[in-house]
Amino acid sequence: MGRFRALASVLVLLVVGSAAALADDPDRTPWLGGVSYEKKDVYALGDATVEVHEDPARPREGPTQGWYRLLVLRDGAIVDGYRVDSWPEDGGRTSVALSWLDRAGEDDGVLVATGAVPEDSTALAVAKDLVAAAVGARGPWEAASALLARAVQTDDPTARAAAALTAYRALERARMRFPDHLGVLRDLVVADALLVPLEAGSDRGANLAFLWRDHVAALEAASSLDADVAPAREARIVCALAEGCYALAVAGLGFYPPEEAERAEVFRRALEGVGQAVQEPAESIELSLPDDRALTLSGWRCPGEVPASGVPFHRLTWLCAESQPDAQPKAVWYSLTGEAAAGGTRWALYGWVGGSRRLLRLYGATEPSAPDVLAALRAHAEAAIAGAKR
Predict the structure, then answer these.
(1) Nearest-CA neighbor of 231 among 75, 22, 5?
(2) Distance between terminal CA atoms of the chain?
(3) Which of 256, 301, 338, 349 has the fewest beta carbons under 10 Å from its own?
């Protein structure tokens, strides 16, 4: 679980009435990060006991703010720990983040849930609800994560494909039961990056094309912290490369922070190897959808040359997204593609999903003009929309 964050590539007791410093407690000190937290509460959670510890040194500007660590005990032994952070947002709202402490608090933990504090509640009350959900998800998450670790460590390609699919299905089941658990979602994004390259071009690959985009978007929306969304950044490029959607992979390079320039360069070299590292904005197409919605086919042009190796070269690529701010590209995209073959180059307009392509128009050995291709693509897209309305 926590170990996957770096892949580029997881009781009803009396309330304690007086504060007790626990910095010297040999059992709790590692879970409390060596900080002199004060024990504020003990409560029952199923067959477990939860201790609430608050850091008195952190300033609090209001009753809904505070910083806590909640330790989960069974039979008197600590089995889990969670770090709680809260902070004010614009408009007076307070947000809460819950992180699972792996390795007994040796690091900042793994973000597993976020929430907002209602006006009539407190950060601690919200944190208790989040911990209850996290404790329930712990078993399924741990089991699925172990399957993912096995898949990552498998060298044989055939065995890896089977192990990756098993892990993926276990993580999907866990997410269906615990849709708000960000640890499960993060591991599922890692599984996307492992499984999609093995399935690109297959029927399963077409289904995964929709799923991995949803997972990446969900993880990015859940947190603004760089370490938490790193797997989404990696998966976007790995999966886009596997599907041959090079324009999307190039766009994904822009999400890498300066300190990860070396990792981004690995992917840039892969794109250079297929002649697609440079993508320039090209003319786009705006289409009307039902319910007063609109669809944008964003155009990108690669100025390179068709490689003699026969690898498909996308001169023009169109990524589809709804016409609204921050809309994510959909699984369906289009390309004007040239392929070197005996006797010359063959140019064609294709529709793509999951690495599988459908021929929309064959142009032959002569590269068509961009306006001609745009007209053909618009006609195809408008006909598809009209057909869907019937």
Answers:
(1) 5
(2) 47
(3) 301
